[in-house]
Amino acid sequence: MTGHGVAVVIGGYGAVGRVVATILARDPANEVVVAGRDLARAEALARTGPGGLTPRRFDLDDPRGLDGVLADAAVVVMCVEHRNEAVARACLDRGIAVVDISASADVLASIERLDATAKRTGTAAVLSVGLAPGLTNVLARRCTERLPSATSVDVTILLGTAGDHGPDSVRWTVAGLTAPPDRTRRPGRARVDLPGFGVRTAYPFPFSDQYTLTRTLGVPVTTRLCFDSGAVTAALFGLRGVGAFRLADRLGGARLLTGASSRLRLGGDRFVVHASATDRGGRQVWSAVTGRQEGHATGVVAAEIAIGLMGRRYPPGVHHIDQIVDAGEFLKTMQRHDLAVHEHPLPFPAEPSAGRLPVVPEGGEK
C-alpha cells in the first residue's frame, strides 16, 4: 500500500458506511467499493456521491463471494456486525488491513485473537473505531496523558434520541439495556457537566470501552450513558433498574423494543462524548467532543483510520484506536469534520475544591 488503492466498505450504504465511503472517495486516487446485499442502495450512493464509488453486491452469508470482493483491496472497513471475525481473518491472511466499527465486546475479543496472524503477514487491524468505542478511547487516552497520576477514568456518552442511528446501533443499545447486571462491577450513576447540556445524570452502561480501556490504560474505567432528553433517560433507566427490560427480553420482546427505539424522536441529534481522569489527590482533567449525528461521527473516525492504514502509518498487529493514534493530533483532525473539542483548562487549581468537578458519583444505581 502506497497511501492510495482500493478500499472496500462492507455495509457501505448504511448510516455509517456511506460517510466512510464518501470521505475516502474524495481522494481521486482511491477506488471505493460500496459492498452489501442491497445492490440498488449501493448503486444509488454511487450515483449521488463523489467519483470513485463502485457498487458491488456482496452477501456476508455467502463466503464464496469473499475472494472476489477482496481481490484488489488495500483496506476493508467493516460497517456491519455480522461474521466480523471471519472477514477479519480472511483479510489479515491476505495482507489486507482492517477497520472494524463493532461495539460488542465479544466481537472485539474474537478479532483481538488474530493478532499473531496480523503480525505474521505484516498487516494491521484497528478496533474500537467510532463514537463509543472510538472517540471515547481517544479522549480517555488524552486525559491520562494530561494527568499521568490518574487512578481512575470516567467516560460518559450523551446520545441524541433523534440522531442518525443505524439498525446495528439501535440493536446494540437495546441489548445493553436488557443485559443482566455485571456483578463484578458496581459503579453508581453520576452527575456529569456536559458541554452544551449542563449537568446531567448518567447511568452505568456496558460499553466495551470499560473493559478494553481498563486494560490498555492500566487504570479502572467506568462508562455511563444518558440521552439528550432527561425524561427519556429517567424512564429508560428507571425501567432497567426494576428489571423491566430483562423481563421483556425473556418474553421475546427485544425485537419490539428495538423497533420502538428506532422510532423514538423526543429530542435532537446532538451528542457529547466526555472523558475525565482523576488522581488520588482529587485533581481532575476532562476532554470532550460534541457534534451532530452519531453515525456521521462514527464514519468520520473510521474513514480517518482507513486513510492511516492505507498510508501504512500503523504497525502490524491488532490494535484498539487508543493504542495507535496520537490522541491530541487525532482530536485536531476531528475538528476538520465539524466536531468540536472541549477540554478542562490547565494548570490545575491549587486545591481540588477550587475547581468544578464535572463527574460526581452518586452511589449505587437506582
From TrEMBL:
Q: Could you tell me the superkingdom of the organism this chain comes from?
A: Bacteria
Q: Give the organism, scientific name.
A: Micromonospora sediminimaris
PANTHER family noted in UniProt? CARBOXYNORSPERMIDINE SYNTHASE
The transmembrane residues are: none
Q: Which InterPro entries match?
A: NAD(P)-bd_dom_sf, Sacchrp_dh_NADP-bd
Region entry Disordered: which residue ranges? 345-366
Q: Which Gene3D superfamilies match?
A: NAD(P)-binding Rossmann-like Domain
Matching entries from SUPFAM superfamilies are given as: NAD(P)-binding Rossmann-fold domains (SSF51735)
Protein name per Swiss-Prot or TrEMBL: Saccharopine dehydrogenase NADP binding domain-containing protein
**Where's the Saccharopine dehydrogenase NADP binding domain?**
8-124
